[in-house]
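Lab meeting prep.
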Amino acid sequence: EVQLQASGGGLVQPGGSLRLSCAASGFTFGSYDMTWVRQAPGKAPEWVSSINSVGGSTHYADSVKGRFIISRDNAKNTLFLQMNSLKPEDTALYYCTTILDGSPQRGQGTLVTVSS
């Protein structure tokens, strides 16, 4: 069974930082590109960042470029998202995703709330 367990969310003040983790199991993590997606209340899901299978190529949405850093540890089957200089508009449910054999997979997500 494929599992993508995100953690590390919480309440943080504007300007603060959080580090999200996504623990993967049930597939060969190191063979797949991974993506972070977020969904704010009442809004459509928004692509945040992607990383290739070996971690050598990363991409970011303009809204987070320069503030967020995606990384992965293939030895520990874990994906990360370091979020710095957080803004209220970053408030959302964050989840990690991948595509296995053409089928999208996602976890339950972790909630990030940026508020003073």
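Slide two material, second protein:
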Amino acid sequence: EVRLVESGGGLVQPGGSLRLSCAASGFGFKIAVMSWVRQAPGKGLERVALIKSDGATDYADSVKGRFTASRDNAIGTLWLQMNDLKPEDTAMYYCALTNEDYQPRGQGTQVTVSS
């Protein structure tokens, strides 16, 4: 059974930082292309970062230069370091397998950027 568990979200002021984590199990994580996606209230799902099995990454223009995705295949964990956070980054963040629907994905962790 695929299991993805995100953590690390919270309330942060604009300009602040957060580091999200995702613990993955139940599938071939080491070879999987993984994504971090987010969904803001009333909006669709947006992929913010993709990370391949070798650590190569790709980012949405909206987060490029501010977010950094990483992974440790040995322990089945993903991270998303988010710096210089903006109010428009407020959303539920999920780690997910990279496919058309980004399914399965975890339960998500809420990130709120507000002063």
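Talking points for slide two:
The radius of gyration is 13 Å.
The chain has a mean pLDDT of 96.
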